[in-house]
Write a structure and sequence with these properties.
It is built from twelve helices and 19 strands. With 382 residues, the protein is of the alpha/beta class. β5, α6 (104-109) and β6 (112-116) form a beta-alpha-beta unit. The longest helix is centred in the first third of the chain and has 15 residues, at 25-39. The chain is elongated, with a radius of gyration of 24 Å.
Length: 382
């Protein structure tokens, strides 16, 4: 075996030069089972798969969770629903962003259920149903305090008193969305709960849904008939002020592509924003903002506390700005045996969790996951 082949065999990380994104489907299923167990047998635990399954791949994630027992799925767009229908022919699929104008036939052809958020959408879906002489399913979304999507509470009263508005519509679900569930003591949680309970009385035959991931942890009063976890399924902490009970799902692993000694007082990277405080060893890693690693995870002399990576059982700080395709890491304190070209580097995973990385990026884990770049070598761990 040549020296080159021997070196490569030590680090069987990648088939090419791209960083590796591993989606742990076993952890994903465990997270769903954990949440499903928290809500009990009388409550359905659905799955939110919008934004390509929060960047993890909606098709593979959908199949894994359907096999685990999930039967109800939520997407944002009809295109997402169409793609999901191809791999889950028997799933119940709701489109959260509602009925897009003049696309009624798309929903019908692919058995997608619109989440209707306005009287105008209700009218359009009703007229379409009547044109087919069929009863078509839908969810009704009411605003209980988010002020984003959803009908006003007086619209609920009007619908309850004037059922002709819903002619041709089979109301299968009534839902709202919590604005502050990840802050358990926020007063808006109780206000939204009270409003939702009142409006549900107008639709006694429909299933009810209020809770997102964080809402599940507010207690059984918030569970109703169906919960809609998203970020918790993918390993994000549903209640940031508490210990995260979820397993990490998305693992980003890169490799060292260069090692160099840098003298004391030398600048590293664009803008000369970070200067070595000592004679340092700097590793260059093959991942950057084109891979979804926000530039804010870097560091500077003015803001030295940037993100970190994990190499050979040790943490190492990101040093200087994040570039498009690379980032620099100070590995001066990492033992020599863990440092070589091709050595694996954990960017995100079991040791650098998604919440920590998002915090350094001054964003939320939702955005970080959805920003995962397209050029990763993707692998699904089953």
């Amino acid at each position: 075996m040549t020296q080159f082949a021997a070196q490569t065999s030590k680090h069987p990380l990648l088939s090419g030069g791209a960083a590796r994104l591993t989606i742990d489907l076993t952890a994903l299923r465990s997270n769903w089972c954990y949440l499903n167990g928290k809500v009990g047998n009388d409550v359905a635990c659905a799955v939110v798969l919008k934004a390509n399954g929060y960047g993890t791949g909606a098709g593979e994630v959908g199949k894994a969770l359907y096999a685990a027992g999930a039967r109800v799925f939520f997407v944002a767009l009809p295109e997402e629903g169409i793609a999901l229908r191809k791999v889950l022919p028997h799933a119940e699929i709701f489109v959260l962003n509602g009925l897009f104008r003049e696309r009624e036939k798309l929903y019908y052809d692919f058995e997608l259920k619109p989440v209707l958020s306005s009287l105008e959408e209700i009218e359009e879906w009703s007229l379409f149903a009547q044109s087919l002489d069929e009863d078509l399913p839908a969810a009704l979304h009411f605003d209980t305090g988010m002020h984003r999507l959803g009908m006003a509470l007086n619209d609920a009263v009007e619908l309850g008193q004037s059922p002709h508005f819903l002619k041709g519509i089979r109301v299968e679900l009534v839902m709202s969305h919590l604005a502050c569930a990840d802050t358990p003591k926020h007063e808006l949680n109780q206000k939204q709960l009270n409003r939702f309970q009142r409006l549900c009385e107008l639709f006694p035959n429909a299933r009810r849904s209020l809770s997102n991931s964080a809402g599940i942890f507010l207690g059984s009063d918030y569970h109703f008939d169906l919960v809609r976890p998203g970020i918790a399924l993918y390993g994000g902490n549903p209640v940031p002020e508490q210990t995260n009970p979820m397993l990490p799902v998305a693992h980003v692993q890169a490799e060292i592509i260069s090692l160099r000694q840098v003298p004391h007082g030398a600048s590293v990277g664009y803008g000369a924003s970070r200067v070595t405080p000592r004679k340092s060893r700097i590793a260059t890693i093959n991942a950057g903002y084109a891979d979804g690693l926000h530039r804010l995870v870097g560091s500077s002399d003015d803001q030295p506390n940037g993100g970190r990576v994990y190499i050979g059982g040790h943490f190492a700080p990101i040093f200087g700005r994040v570039s498009m395709d690379m980032l620099a890491v100070d590995v001066t304190d990492i033992p020599e045996e863990h440092l070589s070209r091709g050595a694996p580097v954990e960017i995100m995973g079991a040791h650098v969790n998604v919440d920590e990385l998002a915090n350094f990026a001054q964003t939320i884990p939702y955005e970080l996951l959805c920003s995962l770049g397209a050029r990763y070598t993707r692998h699904y761990k089953r």
